[in-house]
Specification:
With about 100 residues, the chain is of the alpha+beta class. Helix content is about 45%, strand content about 15%. The chain starts with a helix and ends in a 5-residue tail after the last helix. The relative contact order is 0.21. This is Glutaredoxin domain-containing protein.
């Protein structure tokens, strides 16, 4: 869990992803289209990927990817992030974390 916390705190937005996951791709696109440049951790290409996946599952991520952290705090997986986007909360969180200026 320490590696997830450390990675999540290194950037305003961190997305834990798998390079072959279509939902991970959709969430990354959502952030890019908002003008945000998230840090991406592709756990299927990381030497500690299995440990990271296990830690994400312990945080309640089901499925474990995509898992989104904003301002070092766990925001949620794809369905939660999409809900936050649709109700306008995501933009506020991004501004508060310094990931979005406008």
């Amino acid at each position: 869990m320490d590696v997830v916390a450390r990675l999540a705190s290194q950037s305003a937005v961190v997305i834990f992803s798998k390079s072959t996951c279509c939902m991970s791709h959709a969430i990354k696109r959502l952030f890019y289209e908002q003008g945000v440049s998230p840090a991406i951790v592709e756990i299927d290409q990381d030497m500690y990927g299995k440990d990271i996946e296990w830690a994400l599952a312990r945080l309640g991520c089901s499925p474990p990817v995509p898992a989104v952290f904003v301002g070092g705090k766990f925001v949620g997986t794809a369905s939660t992030v999409m809900t936050l986007h649709l109700d306008g909360t995501l933009k506020r969180l991004l501004k508060e974390a310094g990931a979005l200026w406008l």
